[in-house]
Structures are given as C-alpha cells and as structure tokens.
C-alpha cells in the first residue's frame, strides 16, 4: 500500500464514493478538465464523465444553488469552493436553505450535500485565500462542520460526510495538503462524525485543536515531554456537533486546557469550548483555560503570515503558563 498525502486521500475518497454510488456528483470551478486548483479532483472527469464531474461558471452563488437543488432531488453533490475566502456568496443558499431543509419540511426532505472548502493560511497566498472562517458555520443550526488533520482522517471523514443525510461543511487545511504522507487503505471505511480523536495521552495539560494546528500541538507535546510535562492532544475533527464529552473527560484528568486555532481570537470556536469548560468543568479546572489563536486582523501577507499563525513556541508557553497558574 502506497503512502499518500492529504489531498490524495481526498481524491481517493471521492473516487471511491463515485464508483459505489451513482448519486455522487462533483461540481465547482475548474474541477473537471483541470482537476481543481489544488488537484483534488484530478482524473475524476476522465474516469466518470462530464455528467458527474461538472465545471461550473466562476460564480459561487450559482454553485451553491445548484448543489442545494441537486441534494434536494436525491443526489449527493460534492461542491468545491476554490478558497475559503470565496465562500461568502454561498451563504444565502447554505444558511437559508441547505441548513433548514430538515426542519422546514418536518423531516420529509434533507439536504445531503458536502461543500469542500480549502481552508486556512500558511501557503503565502493573497487576501481571501487564507482565511479560517469555521466559527461562522458552527453558529448555523443544521450544518455539520468537519475539519480533518491527516490523510487517514481526511479519507474516512469525507466518506462519512458524503454519506450523511444532512449538509456538511468540509474544511480542508491546505497548508498540510502535501506536507506528509501516510498509508490509507482504499477500503471504503468511514470514520465517525461528531467524535473527537485523542491523538496522545497525557496527565498534565490538555491541548485541544483541529486542522493544520494538530501538527504544531503534537510537536509542542514532544517539546513539553522533554521537560517532564505530559500533554494530552485532542483533534476535535468535527466542530459541529461538538463531542464535548471527550474534552471534558480529558480536562477532568489533567485539570488544565490550552485551545489552539488559527482563526481570529474574538468569537473563534475556541471561545465556545472555553465557555463550556467554565460552565460544566469549573471544579475540574486547576487554572484558567488558555487560548493560542490568530489575531483580530485579516491574515497578513507573506512575510508576517507565519507570525500570525499559532506556533510550537506559543503553544509550549501557554501550556507552561497554565501549569504555573495552577
């Protein structure tokens, strides 16, 4: 079995579902002939034809409308928006229609669609190409928000997202699209949605994160371990609905928590986790919850981009601070 990258795992998952379910169609800008701006759909149009891999106009509003319409009529569309910052014209269809089909029709209709969103910074791209806007979608009832952090989880979670009867916003951390490889069997086995993954056991502090920052948190855990501090690392993976029980169980064990995300700090999804910890786990906490986040600015261009993103050093410092406080 060959090792593959995260972007190759996405292609593998799409091909598997298209081969096994004729209802699955792929659509978006340049997804057909060119195979997508990041090559996630490379070869799919040649294999499955133009009727199932559709090149659309450069019009995100139309892409969203087509996707909702296809899903409402029994198809399982997977739409791609080229970059996270291009998703905003789609919000009317996603928020006002896709997310409400189940409740609007009292369960008679659902909207089994997936919107693939290349997400986050770290690739030296221009404005609107490096945004971390996941919190916006977590505030919308009726949507699932999924953010994989490895090739294996990208494959398994995308399969689950396509098979889910309700709309899924599937955000792909493009900084790690090709950063490393791992073996991913093409066995059609989905991973569970709505579940956090505990990637490393620890007893002193809990690091909670998602997406590209999983890599930094694991490296921070290694650095802390060298100093005798044992960090538990949790990959949230599905932000909405949140598996808070796994986070709470970890904090009950460690007594401390550091939440890491690259989105701006104010009203980032980490604030929701911190609020629930204060509401439900106050007596387990030995110190205040720390957050390591992006800043309340648009992500800066090029030279300052990596300064904006959470780093191993910032995560280690926050872990030490919460330990010192307790």
From TrEMBL:
This is 2-oxoisovalerate dehydrogenase subunit beta. PANTHER family: PYRUVATE DEHYDROGENASE E1 COMPONENT BETA SUBUNIT, PYRUVATE DEHYDROGENASE E1 COMPONENT SUBUNIT BETA. One of its GO terms (molecular function) is oxidoreductase activity. The branched-chain alpha-keto dehydrogenase complex catalyzes the overall conversion of alpha-keto acids to acyl-CoA and CO(2). It contains multiple copies of three enzymatic components: branched-chain alpha-keto acid decarboxylase (E1), lipoamide acyltransferase (E2) and lipoamide dehydrogenase (E3). It comes from the Bacteria. The keyword Oxidoreductase applies. Keywords: Oxidoreductase, Pyruvate, Thiamine pyrophosphate. Residues 4-179 form the Transketolase-like pyrimidine-binding domain. Its cofactor is thiamine diphosphate.
